[in-house]
Amino acid sequence: MSTYKHIIALFKKDLLLEVRQQYSFYGIVLYVVATIFVLYLAMGTPEDMVWNGLFWMIQLFVCVNAVAKSFLQESRGRMLYFYAIAGPKAFILSKLLFNALLMLLMSSTSILLFFLFFDNPLQSPWKFAGIASLGGLGLSLIFTFLSAIAARAQQNAALMAIMGFPLIIPQILLLMKLSNIAFSDVIQAGLTQMILLLVGFDVLVVALAIILFPFLWKD
Amino acid sequence: MRQSWWKILSVLLLSYTLIAGFLGGVPVKPILNETIRNLYFHVAMWFAMMIFFIVSLVYSIKYLRTNNLKDDWYAVEFANSGILFGILGIVTGAVWANYTWGKPWSNDIKQIGAAISILIYLAYLVLRNSLTDLDKRARIGAVYNIFAFFLLIPAIWIIPRLVESLHPGGMGNPAFNTKDVDSRMRMIFWPAAVPGWTLLGLWITTLRIRTRILEEKQLTNE
Question: Tell me, what's the pLDDT at B172?
Answer without folding.
Answer: 47
